[in-house]
Amino acid sequence: MFCSNIFGALCVLALTVAAKAQSDTSTAISTGTPPPRSHVPKWVYIRANIRPQIPERPALLCLQVRCFNSAIPVHISQLQIDVAYACQQSVLLVKEDTLAVPTGLQTWVRWQSTLHWVKDPPAHGPLPPVDLVGGLQELTEKVEDGTIAREIDFEWKLVDLLTSVHDGHFAFLPDAYFVFTFLNLQPIISLSTDGKQLPEIYLYNDLEPVSQGEGCEPSPIIKINGTEAVSWLSERALNGTMTFQDLDALYNGIFHSISAYSISAPLNQTVGYFALPDFSRFWGSSINLEFKNGSKSSIPIVAFTTKDFSNVIDGESFYQNFCNTTVKIMAAANGSSASTSQQISTTTPDSAQIPQYPSAIAISDDGPATF
């Protein structure tokens, strides 16, 4: 076991207590007479719901994740969502590192070909305007004045800004953001019962017994978290992190896709945004569903990680292990040679030197490219 000294004792104690408490965990609540429902779909392997009972002092928040990793000696670990979220929230940003991100992105953002179109879209267009350059400047100001103090809060806002362009080829993947993946284990599907009636929304797993001839009658979902189901899903589709430009495509992306499954598409495209969002994040510990037959169900949201937490116990060690790692690797590789490297010219290239080309909208200040 990787834990040593006091951390070893804490892990052993935590996992012992968790084993006794495991039967107390609840994953679903139902009333009325719901149809038979499997809360664990066959497309994902779920591990025992082990919940370490460790005092939630700030210095130990990420140690809980570390203990989960030790209990499950494989490369994917399932965690209680509150453990993952608390660990994320314990990571304070390093202002110098964080400010370098929007500054560096400015160069790339100015090369985005739709930059001016998304800022001033057609009056009756389906998507709201997005000021990318202004948004990056606003993020910079909020980091500088301390409005944003946590690394994950900065990264969430950055992802929201970049994905609001709705361009699947325009993306930036922040480091702390992808340490954990958040998902629920119940994809949904939109289905017309006879091909003529308007489709209704069902849990995918409720339809599986029907396809196998078991004779049960699944009930459609009418409300999600207290809101009419179609309205709730439409809002999530438009204001989430999917990058489709068409409203129909955004809505369809919410659902489990049989066609995507048949071509072995990535899991998030197969099970749909409802179950596994693009750029998934913490947005609650459960989803509450109401069905037409009067039954109710609370679907838990869980967290997964593929990262090695053996050297992580708190926010500071989380940052050292998972954040800004590329810069650290490059700095270590360059070593002392960095001081003797040639100075890169910062002369702004003159677009007039390139015959028959129009004036540039954006010009990088690091000199012309050479091949």
Automatic annotation (TrEMBL):
InterPro entries for this protein: PDZ_CPAF-rel, S41A_metabolite_peptidase
Domain CPAF-like PDZ per the UniProt entry, residue ranges: 184-309
Signal found in the keyword field: yes
Keyword terms, alphabetized: Signal
Keyword Signal: yes
Signal peptide (UniProt feature, chain positions): 1-21
Protein name stated in the entry: CPAF-like PDZ domain-containing protein
Source organism per UniProt: Cladophialophora bantiana (strain ATCC 10958 / CBS 173.52 / CDC B-1940 / NIH 8579)
